[in-house]
Amino acid sequence: MARRNAIVMTATILTALIVPAAPAAAGGGCHSGVTQGTGDTVELVEACFTPTTLQIQPGGSVTFVNTDPMVHNVGGNLWGHFEDLDPGQAFSATFDESGIYPYACWYHPGMTGAIVVGDGTGVGNGESVTVASFQQPEPSPVVEIRTVTREASSTPAVTGWVVGSLLGIGIGLGIAALVRRRTRPAA
Q1: 28 contacts: CB under 8 Å, gap ≥ 6
Q2: Strand order of the sheet with strand 41-45?
Q3: What confidence score (pLDDT) does residue 114 get?
Q4: How far, in whole angstroms, is CA 151 from its chain's centroid?
Q5: Coil, strand or helix: which one is 102?
Q6: Quick one: what percent of the chain has pLDDT higher than 90?
Q7: In the chain, which residue ranges form alpha helices assigned H by DSSP?
Q8: Helix, strand, coil % (nearest 5) of the chain?
Q9: Calpha distance 120→95 (Å, rounded)
Q10: Which tens digit of pLDDT belongs to each residue from 14-42?
């Protein structure tokens, strides 16, 4: 019995060492990189605010449009649309004072962005932001977008995880077969 426990423990340790850990995913955020732009529209697409950072002039309005197939919300400091923003829905926010207005989706950690009003200096606390709920305006095209990208793909990590899991299962089954063969009484 002690030998069987030792074999099972060894198989467990080998499986834990061979099977790689699953990649961390925060459940949202711009995994493909941060985007910067000008214009008056922020799209919520692939759990990312696009552009992530948008610069406008004081008194300008920004339309947030959910083009994702999932629910989001947009919450800033004293401003935002805190209720569910269903697919296809939109709202506008008007920013009267210069400053930086960060915002995030509470449902998807890592899904963040910021509106830079004017030169970005100022309070940016949201007291002067006017939000119009659930309008369906036509989205305006983004005038300029610069994309900062990084080479990242979840495919190799997922493939490694699957191959490692299958390898671990195979090793475990092989060890179990050896243990079973050695513990059978001779005929």
Answers
A1: 47, 48, 105, 107, 108, 109, 110, 111
A2: 48-50, 41-45, 60-66, 90-95, 129-135
A3: 93
A4: 16
A5: strand
A6: 34
A7: 2-18, 154-183
A8: 25, 35, 40
A9: 12
A10: 555 555 544 444 445 566 667 888 789 99
**Radius of gyration of the chain, Cα coordinates, nearest whole angstrom:** 26
State the Cα–Cα distance between residues 47 and 32, nearest whole angstrom: 11
Whether 72 has a pLDDT exceeding 90, the answer reads: yes
Q: Which two tokens stand for residue 31?
A: 């995994």
Q: Which residue has the tokens 């299958």?
A: 166
d(CA 81, CA 107): 13
Determine contact, residues 114/52, Cβ cutoff 8 Å: yes
Q: For residue 128, give the DSSP letter.
A: T
d(CA 153, CA 110): 17
Let me know: does 76 contact 113? Beta carbons within 8 Å: no
ω into 69 cis (within 30 of 0): no
3-state secondary structure of 92: strand
